[in-house]
Amino acid sequence: EDKVVQSPLSLVVHEGDTVTLNCSYEVTNFRSLLWYKQEKKAPTFLFMLTSSGIEKKSGRLSSILDKKELFSILNITATQTGDSAIYLCAVESNTGNQFYFGTGTSLTVIP
Amino acid sequence: EPEVTQTPSHQVTQMGQEVILRCVPISNHLYFYWYRQILGQKVEFLVSFYNNEISEKSEIFDDQFSVERPDGSNFTLKIRSTKLEDSAMYFCASSLDREMWETQYFGPGTRLLVL
Questions:
Q1: How many angstroms away from the CA of B110 is the closest CA of chain A?
Q2: pLDDT band, very low/low/confident/very high, at A44 (cuts 50, 70, 90)
C-alpha cells in the first residue's frame, strides 16, 4: 500500500530556531514530492521536488529530496511566529494523477 | 493573482440528501482535482479530471460521487446520498499542465456537515 509518513507529528520551537521536517514515502511509480503549508484552510504550495539532491530554496525555507532513501526534508531557518502551521508532504504517483498526503507536521513557533 | 474559488464555504445537510459542491478553477488551467480532509485527519485525494473526463480516482470516490464541468468554468462534485462519514472539508484544486510539472492551486474549501 502506498503511503507517506511525516515526522515529527508536532513541534514547538522558539522564534529564531531552525527546524527540520521529515517526509518518507513508499509510493509506486514516484513522480514528484510536494510540500504544502496549511494554516487555516487550504494548503498553499511551497515546493515541488522531482530530482534527488537538488535543493530548492525560497527565503528561509529549503527542501531536498533523496529518491534512493525515499525521503525529503523541509528546513525552516530563523523561524517566525508566522511559520506556525501544519506542513503537509504529498507524493504524486506516475500512475495517473494520484496524490498521497502525509498526516502533516504541526509546527508552533512561540515568541 | 488568480485563485481557485469554491462555494458554498459551509454546507449542512441531512443524511441521504444530495449535495453539489462548486469550484471555479483558475481560468487557463486544464487539470482539476477534488480532495477531502476529515476533521483532524489527513488530506485525501478523491479524483482528478482532464479533458472532460475523470483521469484518476481513489477508492473513496465510489458510485455516490460524481464530477462534471457543466459550463466550461465550474467544476462540481456531487454526492448523491450523503452519509455521516462524508462530513469533511472538501478542497478543489487546479493546475495548468501536468506535463510542465505545474503545481496545484487549492481553493479555500467547503466544509460539509452531514447530520
A1: 9
A2: confident
